[in-house]
Amino acid sequence: MFRSTLSLLISLFFLSPVLSQENINLKEDFPVFPVCKLIPSSLQKNCFDESMQDHIDEFFSYPKTAVDLGLQAVVNVYFEINKNGMVGDINANCNLVGVKFDNKEALLAANQLFEKAAKDIFAKLPKMIPGKINDSISSFPFQIPITYRIPVKENNSNLVFALDSVEWAPLFPGCEKMNSDGSKTCFKEKVQNHINKHLRYPKKANTTEKDVVVFIEILIENDGVIYDLTSLGPNLFRQEAERVIKKLPYFEPALNNDIPVAVSYTIPILFNSKINK
Could you give the 3-state DSSP secondary structure of residue 186? Predict the structure, then answer.
């Protein structure tokens, strides 16, 4: 009920080691869920991603206290699948969305609500078939974001819909001939293409060898204009992500029953130190 529409893009968040000249030809075999062991090796990575998503869907739980307080968050969860196929070293870092606490103890308590709920998801993962690097069994680290968002109530006069719940997505130039479902796919692809074209890795960043993820939530009002933009991530990268999003064109608004409606859309933006130059 309370799951975000944000796709988890698990494949982007495997934390690969920084490559040196000696290990640039690493052969990596991902850990495998037990259910995936009988399928061809070429499909096991996809099976891992799908099985992980199914597991998250099954064990996702929104903390009741957070719901009562109207709190929302993005939690980055870090964990390792070790040489025995066991999940361990689970850590979480919570970023609250759209709220500010002046009291540090209250902020800590709010963060811990979400961090515990997110860590519990991954603590319930089954034992895996361990991964390999250059045919040697190895541990694999991961980072996966979990988004907690409370849906807008139906009787809210300023109703905002998630992008996937509307009949017609905001009309991005070039998507005019799409059907209803195609309009959403086209919108997402056009936005991603726009990001790929304009995004640059900040020159002043000190993490030039690291990939960084920024989460952007945009609110496209029922006149097709982006009125609100919320971002989570390191400051320099947030500024660059916001700059790119603000270059998006004006849209024709999303439609439900031919009536213009406001929609929200959350985008994980990956800054790849080797690509975004």
Answer: helix
pTM over 0.90: no
Q: Could you report the per-residue pLDDT of 154-173, keeping only the tens digit for each?
A: 434 457 888 888 999 999 88
For 78, counting Cβ atoms within 10 Å of its Cβ (0-12 exposed, 13-18 middle, 19+ buried), the class is middle
How far apart (Å, rounded) are the C-alpha atoms in residues 169 and 180?
8
Q: Give the residue with greater pLDDT, 257 vs 96.
A: 257
Distances (CA, A) of 180 to 29, 165, 169, 177, 251: 39, 11, 8, 10, 16
Nearest alpha carbon to residue 223 among 196, 259, 194: 259
Q: Minimal CA–CA distance to 148: which of 219, 97, 90, 188? A: 97
Kindly provide the residue ranges of all beta strands, DSSP E only, lying in the chain, ordered along the sequence: 28-29, 73-81, 87-96, 131-133, 136-138, 140-148, 160-162, 212-220, 226-232, 254-256, 259-271
Give the residue extent of every domain in the chain. 10-148, 160-271
Helix (H) or strand (E) holding 40: none
The position carrying tokens 């066991």 is 86
Which of the two residues, 195 and 43, has the higher pLDDT score? 195
- Our measurement of the distance from residue 180's CA atom to the centroid of its chain's CA atoms, rounded to an integer in Å, reads 24
Cβ 253 vs Cβ 260: under 8 Å: yes
- 160-271 adopts what CATH topology? 3.30.1150
Distance of CA 45 to the CA centre of its chain: 18
CA distance 50 to 71: 28
Question: What pLDDT, on a 0 to 100 scale, did the predictor assign at position 177?
Answer: 87
Amino acid, single-letter form, for residue 8: L
